[in-house]
Amino acid sequence: MDAYEILELQGKYLWPNHLLYYTDPLPLDHGEGMYVWDVEGNQYLDFFAGILTTSVGHKHPKVLDAAREQMEKLIHSSTLYPNEKHVRLAEKIADITPGNLQKSYFTNSGTEANENAILLARVVTGHQEVIALRHAYHGRSALAMSLTGQAAWRIGGTHAHGVKHAMAPYCYRCPLKMTYPECGVACAEDVEDVIKTQTSGKIAAVIAEPILGVGGFITPPPEYFGIVAEIAYTYGGLFIADEVQTGFGRTGTYWFGIEHWGVVPDVMTMAKGIANGFPLANTITTAEIADEMKGKGLTISTFGGNPVSCAASLATIEVLEEEANPAHVAEVGDYLHAGLKRLQEKYPMIGDVRGKGLMQGVELVNDRETKEPAADATNYVLEVARSSGLLIGKGGMYGNVLRIAPPLTATKEHVDEALEKLDRTFAIVHEMTW
Ligand SMILES: Cc1ncc(COP(=O)(O)O)c(C=O)c1O
Predict the structure, then answer these.
(1) How far is CA 341 from CA 131, 352, 400, 417, in A?
(2) Keywords assigned by UniProt (predicted)?
(3) For 45-97, how does the pLDDT look when each residue is reduced to its tens digit (9 = 90+)?
(4) Where do the structural domains in the chain lie, given as residue ranges?
(5) Residue minimizing CA distance to atom 1 of ligand 1
(6) Which label site among 235, 293, 385, 412 has the fewest CB atoms less than 10 Å from its CB?
């Protein structure tokens, strides 16, 4: 099928609210390593990795072999029957997660993993209310949309009961108009303020992304999660880290994003990069907390812990250990960050460069003084980068943050290629808009 035929069927048979990148959407055909090709044969350097998901690149032979081998044996069983890949993956993830996070519940998407985490927190604490952050994104079920702190992603007027939002630790646009570190991380105290003023005073959980992904790679200051986790405990709740974007080495140095803040959460949710694109998600907690679920009612997941996805995940983690461990991601990520900082010196539209590892955000503004969000320029950058053969993402509540997040197997050479394309792109967009 050519692009025209695909788009024709897309328009006719798929819901129109599927968000598509680009004015002229891009039907992809195949991928290999760091690159993808569209149906017309054009090649692109993939620096968004299917929304931070193909963590070891497209068509990695070890992931393919593992999945193929499992498909020959058993494609599906449901969680009614234990299987080897399911338990081996649970053991492996317990091994690489911090603290005594040990017991897993596998499902199919980040949304489900977060649903499961809130279910767990409510059952275990006996409390209902949950604190999330403004600018957060936690998924697309009714509850996950309610946890999400951005109107645009809360379609249908969804408001699940008992969810309140505290200020985001968004230093570049501080909600308190203060400056770090003189602020004393005052935004963290807002979590307590919200609990005291908007809840019954007893909460089930605080849930947060270590780096707010869809929110535009908002990166909280170093003290933030230590303070927030303590507040959660003071008011009887669990602290849940949504590692759907930040997990599996994405942020460099550690396997999971929250480790940068020196905090071990009670519950961690993960998906996206867990299996290099095979649908899989997980909610992990301590044995002590998980065991509280005994005798609390029945639960199954038809596709959860699917043996093929679990086999692909085990292979993905193995490849990460061999080819793209957290130290590699930190090194290549720092290299990318430094290159983006150089572009910031050159182009006044770049207001902020932030992030950790291979999760780098570039916030575009019309004026560095007023910080007026440059949503149009952001769209132009995406379009021009595409014509130069580079795919990147965007995010932020104002649609003005570029999200740069290649497969973790990216090398400095791939980063050089991306930076060169971005430099040319910014030069063109500068001429168009500045
Ligand atoms: C931090 C975070 N949590 C949860 C989700 C939902 O994951 P899924 O789309 O797999 O349901 C996303 C998706 O982008 C996410 O970024």
Answers:
(1) 34, 9, 17, 16
(2) Aminotransferase, Pyridoxal phosphate, Transferase, Transit peptide
(3) 999 999 999 999 999 999 999 999 999 999 999 999 999 999 999 999 999 99
(4) 3-55+325-433, 62-323
(5) 244
(6) 412
Q: Dump pLDDT digits (tens) for 269-301.
A: 999 999 999 999 999 999 999 999 999 999 999
Amino acid at 416: D
355 burial via Cβ count (<10 Å: 0-12, 13-18, 19+): buried
Ligand 1 atom at minimum distance from 272 CA: 10
Which pLDDT value is given to residue 159? 78
Pocket test for ligand 1, best of 111, 243, 267, 401 (most atoms within 8 A of CB): 111
pLDDT of residue 158: 63
DSSP 104-170: EEEESSHHHHHHHHHHHHHHHH---EEEEETT----SSHHHHHH---GGG-GGG---TTEEEEPP--
Predicted confidence band at 160 (pLDDT cuts at 50, 70, 90)? Answer: confident
- 219, 244, 270, 303: residue to mutate for ligand 1 pocket, most atoms within 8 A of CB: 244
How many angstroms separate the alpha carbon of residue 309 from the centre of ligand 1?
17
Domain 3-55+325-433 sits in CATH at 3.90.1150.10
Q: Locate 65 and state its tokens.
A: 């072999």
- What is the CATH architecture assignment of 62-323? 3-Layer(aba) Sandwich (3.40)
Give the pairing of strands 238-242 and 267-270: parallel
pLDDT tens for residues 310-352? 999 999 999 999 999 999 999 999 999 999 999 999 999 999 9
Report the residue among 48, 53, 137 best suited for mutation to probe ligand 1: largest number of ligand atoms under 8 A from its CB. Answer: 137
